[in-house]
Design a protein that fits this description.
Blueprint lengths: L1 E4 L4 H12 L5 E4 L7 H6 L7 E4 L2 E4 L1 H11 L10 H17 L4 H4 L4 H18 L16 H11 L13 H11 L2 H6 L2 H4 L4
Parallel strand pairs: 1-2
Antiparallel strand pairs: 1-3, 3-4
Helix pairs in contact: 1-3, 1-7, 4-7, 7-8
Length: about 200
């Protein structure tokens, strides 16, 4: 099983977290985003990472990759087993993409007007969910899940993206520290990602 990944991509980061959580054998193929290998264009229709290759299977899109890994190696299980909770988890993963992660590319650009707007939207959307962590440890309660995996790379990069959360988001920041203190989260970080936080 090989993951094509870049050192700073939050979507690749998600997949590396899941691979480490599963404690399985895998290879990371580091891709230079400024000099992508030709074989990446062949296996990925969008020429983007992450891409997971296992024998004849090629998967792209981080949430699809992660759900496949979770199904293939079910211990520890990261997606809820019960169909209603599983559907709710998928819906929340979709919301993360639509309300948070779709703004990341803009937040990394040099256009101040666009980046300020993206940062503002991410800040507002994160602040809205902060109160959830007044009452529970993780996204779905006391159990670490795929939802925590999905949002962790963004939370790790807040400082890097110059996003400052307001005081009312304090429970979210405490939740973030819980995620970051997990040994397997630390193991999944690249040297470049470690340097994103001072």
């Amino acid at each position: 099983m090989t993951l094509y990944s870049t050192a700073t991509c939050p979507f690749s980061h998600r997949c590396r977290i899941v691979l480490h959580e599963k404690d399985m054998d895998f290879q990371i193929h580091d891709v230079d985003p400024n000099n992508k290998p030709e074989d990446l264009a062949v296996i990925s229709p969008y020429g983007q990472v992450p891409v997971l290759v296992e024998r004849d299977l090629v998967l792209y899109e981080s949430n699809i990759i992660n759900e496949y890994i979770d199904d293939r190696f079910p211990h520890p299980q990261l997606m809820p087993a019960e169909p209603v909770m599983r559907a709710r988890a998928r819906l929340l993963l979709h919301r993360f993409e639509q309300e948070l992660f779709c703004h990341i590319e803009t937040a990394e650009q040099n256009d101040h007007k666009l980046t300020d707007s993206a940062r503002k939207t991410i800040t507002e959307n994160l602040t809205m969910i902060a109160s959830l962590f007044d009452k529970q440890k993780y996204m779905l309660g006391d159990e670490y899940s795929m939802l925590d995996v999905a949002i962790a790379p963004l939370l790790w990069r807040l400082e890097y993206y110059s996003i400052r959360l307001p005081k009312q988001a304090a429970p979210l920041l405490k939740y973030s520290e819980r995620l970051f203190s997990r040994p397997l989260f630390i193991d999944a970080l690249t040297p470049s990602e470690k340097m994103m936080r001072k």
